[in-house]
Prior knowledge:
six-stranded mixed beta sheet; single chain; 4% helix
Amino acid sequence: MAFDAAGLNAAGGQSKAANAPQMWTYTTTDAAATVDTSGYFNSIASILKVGDLIYRVTTSSGSVSSAGFHVVLSISAAGVVDVADAQAVNTGTNTD
């Protein structure tokens, strides 16, 4: 699928970010491998900056299937956004 801006939200004190990295939350049905594809976030290149952190939650059938952090690695002059592979924080498993 394609990036859906409806799933993106600023986290914390974004208005005070200045040159500091910002944190974003993003909920999607796309897998981590899709989200970390170069160009996935191109439509919001103007609001992202290198070093920003995107906390992604992937849902399936109303449940969390995975979650992880993606760091914005680069934004080209042409507006191509490249983020790092996810650092997983949850694989969606629950043994209880």
